[in-house]
Amino acid sequence: MLYQVLHEIEKADGSITLNDLSIKLGVDRNALEGMLQFWVQKGRIQDDSTTCDDVVCSCGPSFISSVDCTFIAKMPKTYSVRTQNEQKEKGN
Amino acid sequence: MSIIETALQKKLSFKIDYGEELEEQINQLVDEIAQRPVIAEQFPHRWLAIKLLEEDRDIQIKLLALKDGASLIKVAQKSIELLKSVQGDDLDIQIADRRYRWINQLVNSTVQRPLDDKRAFTDRFDQIVTHRYLGIPIFFIVMWIVFKLTADVSAPYIDWIDGVITGPIGNMIVAILNTLGLRDSWVSSLFVDGIVAGVGGVLVFVPVLTFLYLALAVLEDTGYMARGAYVMDRVMGKIGLHGKSFLPMLVGFGCTVPAFYSTRTLENEKDRILTGLLVPFMSCGARLPVYILFSAIFFPRYAGTAVFSMYLLGILTAIGLGIILRKTVFKNKEQSALIIELPPYRAPNVKTVWLYIKERVGTFLKNAWTIIMATSIVLWLLLAIPVNGQGSFAETDVDHSVFATVNRVVAPILKPLGFGNWQASGSLITGFLAKEVVVSTMAQIYTTDVLETNAESNGFLQEIGEIIFTFWGATVDTLKSLPLIVGVDLFEEEVETEPTNLMNAIYASFDASSGGHGVFAGLAFMVFVLIYTPCVVAVAAERQELGTKWMWVSMVGQLVLAWIMALAVFQGGKLLFG
After folding, report:
1. d(Cα A5, Cα B543) in Å, to the nearest integer?
2. Residue A78 to residue B285, Cβ atoms within 8 A
3. How many CB atoms are closer than 10 A to CB B196?
4. Does the N-terminal or the C-terminal CB of chain B have fewer CB atoms within 10 Å?
5. To 10 degrees, the CA torsion angle through B228, B232, B233, B237?
6. Sign of the C-alpha dihedral computed for residues A57, A60, A63 and A69 taken in this order
7. Is there a contact between B424 and B414 (Cβ–Cβ < 8 Å)?
8. Per-residue pLDDT reduced to its tens digit, B206-242
9. Measured distance CA(B255)–CA(B276) in Å, rounded
10. pLDDT recorded at residue A68
11. CA distance B559 to B568
């Protein structure tokens, strides 16, 4: 199941919504989030909302903001699959 | 009788099948555990065997404190090595995978979910708005409506605020200065020609930003903005940019500073630098007053479309440059996939929308009273100091000021672009501090006669009455303009705003500097403002994120590109339509 999740994401060749992934795998969205979190812990997937800096980003889910800017866009929450090079860099 | 009671009565137990090889090692470990009574008494045997194969640290620590614990861990280690030599992957992943598979099968065979209407609507609607081919045109149509709405609806309020600043408020300031015996003094000039003209010139755009933020807040709160990011992200991926590149770019539509910081979500350095170089082409909110002003001057009937086209040009420039850089300097064949969580659609919440607008307009106002006011005072000083003995301090013609003299040196570079005068070059240079300052500088340069220093206040109550009356008029005009957005003229009358002194002055100046091709010069100026170096705070953020080398590459590159694109617009316009 976990491997299927990774496989489907890579097969999407770009971006895929959590909803589409849930439909394709026939897995509930909440269960899917749990699986993604598992891969986040294993370092294969990055939870992008955790890469924000405290000064610039309010790191609540799916939110990027800055106190000094006149416009702040609320971004959707994203996860990205680490490429092999990124995994190596992270490992180092 | 509940399911749990039934299960307890029947003593149902579950056992996940972890596969032949794993099960064999689990069974061997279960036997080992059974041979160690102290451990066997304390833990369920199968559970402990699996935990040992998962190399659970807590369990290992507990076992080490027990008799025969260390030897059991050694046995488990042998099993782990054996399994790894056969299967080659982390055992804990395989165990977790089997568990998720079991849970999924159980859920699918036992749980029947009622159809969630809200979710069903979201799924159906998403099939259209995130469609592979329809998604992009829909996104651009939505953004066009946003800018059309912003420009058309806010126009009467711009006139109203302009009227209030140059009318009642200006008159009151002049009256106070006159009462203090400062009539025609340099202090009076500082207030009237400096602060009121400069800060007031920017404050008139508060309605534009308010309506823009209202539209964006509604889009964001309904959940559409996330879809917009998704469809654009797919485009980025297709042309070889990192899927996540569009997220910092979308942030850049508001402000370039957080956009630079949000490139941190890209782990690969090449992707991060490339995205950082493209981010400034996303037109930030501070550039909007320039577009609104110039659109109203040169394209009064198509102001919304003109503003939208600037945003579109920024995106297209970033995409084009991205493709070139990806194929040359930043070659990277490895692309990573992206998973985006789209929230369900919902009706916008009034409080959320209000907070969104309040926060952003509040920051804009704060900037007006700090950066713009300080710049206006410095600029007033530079405009007030004469050179070559032409007049005296604060009484010289701005044409003979220090500011004009210095900027005349730069102006010839801009001549081929159609705006080779010191007013335009000076505005672009001060715009380096903040992009709104382009407008406040022009307001100070062009409309030094914005207020009559001999004007008398009509009395406080009468002035207040005038403000309320004109506000009502602006609201009526706005309501009349709403059906016009979709091309319906319910009132059979033109809701067209009168050009202000500033607009007339800018038009005349650009027309003169371009040899009668003011429209192309105005458009070229808008393009230059879109492409050229962002403000000083953004440059500092760029240096922090990309390093000094790339900051200089970006700054110089943007200036050169701005010049080339503005040249193409002006000269091309003259050739084709002149």
Report:
1. 38
2. no
3. 24
4. N
5. 160
6. negative
7. yes
8. 888 888 888 888 888 888 888 887 887 777 776 677 6
9. 13
10. 41
11. 14
User: How many helices, marked H, and strands, marked E, lie in chain A?
Assistant: 4, 3
- Given an 8 Å threshold on Cβ–Cβ distance, is A71 in contact with B254? yes
Segments of chain A with pLDDT less than 50? 52-72, 92
* 3-state SS class at A67: coil
Rg (Cα) of chain A, in Å, rounded? Answer: 15
State the amino acid at position B422 in one-letter form.
Answer: W
Note whether A46 contacts B250, CB cutoff 8 Å. Answer: no
pLDDT digits (tens, 9 = 90+) for B460-519: 777 778 788 888 888 888 777 777 666 655 555 555 566 778 888 999 999 999 999 999
- Cα distances from B313 to residues B141, B145, B531, in angstroms, run 15, 16, 9
- Which string of DSSP letters, residue by residue, matches B306-345? HHHHHHHHHHHHHHHHHHHHHHTTT-------EEEEPPPP
Highest mean pLDDT, choosing among B245-254, B369-378, B444-453: B369-378
pLDDT digits (tens, 9 = 90+) for B301-317: 888 889 889 999 998 99
Q: Do B107 and A28 touch (CB under 8 A)?
A: yes
Nearest chain B alpha carbon to A15:
B338
Instruction: Say whether pLDDT at B89 is over 80.
Output: no
* Structural domains of chain B sorted by starting position, each given as residue range(s) with its CATH number in brackets: 16-110 (1.10.287.1770), 146-210+348-513 (no CATH)
Pairing between strand A15-17 and B338-341? parallel
Residue A45 and residue B339: Cβ atoms within 8 Å? yes
Under the banding of pLDDT at 50, 70 and 90, the label for residue B426 is very high
ipTM of the shown complex: 0.77
Q: Closest Cα of chain A to B105: distance in Å? A: 9
The residues in A 26-65 lying below 8 A from B, measured between CB atoms, are 26-28, 31, 34-36, 38, 42, 45-46, 48, 51-53, 55-57, 62, 64-65
The candidate with the shortest Cα–Cα distance to A11, out of A19, A3, B126, is A3
Specify the pLDDT at position B566.
Answer: 96
Closest-CA distance of chain A to residue B167, Å: 28
Which residues on neighbouring strands pair with residue A81, listed in sequence order?
A45
CB contact under 8 A, A17 and B130: yes
Other Cβ atoms closer than 10 A to A60: 12
